[in-house]
Amino acid sequence: MPRLRLALNQIDSTVGDLAGNAEAVVRWTRHSAGQGAHLVAFPEMMLTGYPVEDLALRSSFVAASRAALVSLATRLADEGRGGLPVVVGHLDRSATARPKYGQPAGAPQNAVAVLHGGEVVLSLAKHHLPNYGVFDEFRYFVPGDTMPVLRVRGVDVALAVCEDLWQDGGRVPAARSARAGLLLSVNASPYERDKDDTRLELVRNCPPAYLAMAGGQDELVFDGDSIVVDRDGAVLARAPQFTEECVVLDLDLPAAGADAPTGVVDDGLRIDRVVLSEEPVHGGGPASSDGPAPSDEPLLSGGHAERLDDDEEVYAALVAGLRAYVTKNGFRSVLVGLSGGIDSALVAAIACDAVGARHVHGVSMPSRYSSEHSRSDAAELARRTGLHFRTVAIEAMFDAYMGALGLTGLAEENLQSRLRGTLLMALSNQEGHLVLAPGNKSELAVGYSTLYGDSVGGYGPIKDVYKTSVFRLAEWRNRAAAARGQTPPIPENSITKPPSAELRPGQVDTDSLPDYPVLDAILDLYVDRDRGADEIVAAGYDRELVTRTLRMVDTAEYKRRQYPPGTKISAKGFGRDRRLPVTNRWRETV
Questions:
Q1: 23, 100, 162, 192: which one is catalytic?
Q2: Which residues contact residue 433 at a Cβ distance below 8 angstroms, ignoring those fewer than 6 apart?
Q3: Residue 587 — very low, low, confident or very high, per pLDDT cuts 50/70/90?
Q4: Contact 548/556 with Cβ under 8 angstroms?
Q5: Is the Cβ–Cβ distance between 109 and 93 less than 8 Å?
Q6: 126 is catalytic
Q7: 131: burial class by Cβ within 10 Å (0-12, 13-18, 19+)?
Q8: Number of Cβ atoms within 10 Å of the Cβ of 331
């Protein structure tokens, strides 16, 4: 059987940074060539970043993407890499002469190109366009209608793009009909909990080389987890999660046949064949012009990465999401209001892991209701992590407002939170920090937060993490530190004491909310799974409690609309996934 040395570059890209993304392609192609690769691949929309959202509707951006692609092909050839086929995702436009799918001719396409010999020798557009969850691709793109097959070293390689693998029909059966020796799928697949397990089963059912993006973009995190399986479903290689990596491996594949099919196959896809090199390479065969010769023993670099356990995986996603947002938006430091509670403690730990403690600033802002243990817990967190720490009391500011307005009840409580928000934003403006909002998904769901107070910030690292998971992640982070012989970053008292906003004497969260394990279970059914009130009651929950909880969720939509972006880790996060009208009289309960 011919042997194909494949280089899968699981790397990050930045939306709109065409020059920077092209530079990354050149740099990683050099590395792949040094490994003797015969075929080099990069993720979906690598050249433009993903998702580009409404940038796809700007003809100037589409034109810039197309020009950058041509320039990239030329540059690779000028560097002596012209003989090495490079597969790279980009933004293109349809060549269809007639309007299609209600969009004009020349509509944008989520495309992949093959660069070789200084030219774009093959181009394809994504066939299945996802239109669920975080995806709006039918808003932007028109689908492709070809089944591209690239012949490299005597092996026919079929190409697919992300959703083409997840849906029935399309390029998977078409690749079989085209008798391709390998199906190469390039992806920008956003992370969510347990997706790695789903992904593995997916690729086992239609064995491809599955290349995924790493990094982060706004609320989305891309965990990599690129996988190659054989025809029996056995994993040949699996890249690490949340890490850039080049996986290089030798695959012994069926030789391309002289009678390979042409014409139209499954789903009306037309086979587009491009032959780059007919001469097969076998183990110990002739050297590649772009790298060393393969040996008799198959090469596998970056092979079977260890899987992260569930809590470590979620924590790594939160760190990756925050790091990407901070660095890609040009911030050098972050600011966290430290209350001594579990939420701000976890956010601070994530921030220290994401950008380094020297770039994390914490501020304690006690009021007359702040307990001594809350103040000391905030200081202890700073001592353990090494972040910058200061205390700015809000008592004088609070007294000035109260003297002018004479507020009582909830207005008095919320004033404290809003003073803290104002203080944080003032420090942000003065010193240039990105303020991190510490709210969790449980609070956001039921509106247990103060607008323009604790919801203030430029990014919410744990906005998609339920309160019960906040505790679990904090405990995991401390265990992980202890296992490495390090000081656990989060004070035990922040984990064990009853959660409280400390806006009035003796206040605890359960004064206003059900116990968090019960609340989170109801929210999971209502928010994440779209279950109605009767279904939730049938699952064993008290009707009165369900009615009260669902009403809190329904009436808090206006608060969630004004909350900053934050890392998505669930199948249905607030914002991109769950979109409900603010003005809405439908209620699940009466």
A1: 162
A2: 331, 333, 334, 335, 361, 427
A3: confident
A4: no
A5: yes
A6: yes
A7: exposed
A8: 18
